[in-house]
Amino acid sequence: MNAYVPPGWPAGVHPPGTERFEETAMAWLLEFVPPEYRRYGVLRRYPVALARMARQHVSAGVEAARLGFRTARTELSGVIPPHGVEAVLDIYRREGTRLVAIAEGVDLIDRALRGETFTRPL
Predict the structure, then answer these.
(1) What are the two backbone dihedrals, phi and then psi, of residue 80, each rounded to the nearest 5 degrees?
(2) Please, what sign has the CA dihedral across residues 111, 117, 120, 121?
């Protein structure tokens, strides 16, 4: 089966409707929640619940990166040299971009787990 997945679909996650979709989706989602969550069987029985929790954790990370970026210069100026502040801001830029991409992947998986189908654009 050559199923279509939209741009931003996470690498390593099989397309919806294929045999290993839920298995690979859950493995990917578990990377973005605290490791302790692996102990809760309810999250394996109901992948949509796992997607919801992953969405919340990733969203919190995005917001933390945005807040950190906005406040780093004032909080770190005078404590670390200017080139250090710029390096910290660069980390926030990179991580913010990475986390936003993960959030988009979580959203796509959540939508697929809820039964939404993706169609190839014309």
Answers:
(1) -130, 155
(2) negative
Containing 44, the helix (H) or strand (E) segment is helix 41-45
pLDDT tens, position by position, 70-113? 999 999 999 999 999 999 999 999 999 999 999 999 999 999 99
Judging by beta carbons within 10 Å of its beta carbon (0-12, 13-18, 19+), is residue 36 exposed, middle or buried?
exposed
CB atoms within 10 A of CB 110: 19
DSSP bridge partners of 22: none
User: Please, what sign has the CA dihedral across residues 77, 82, 83, 86?
Assistant: positive
DSSP state of 19: T
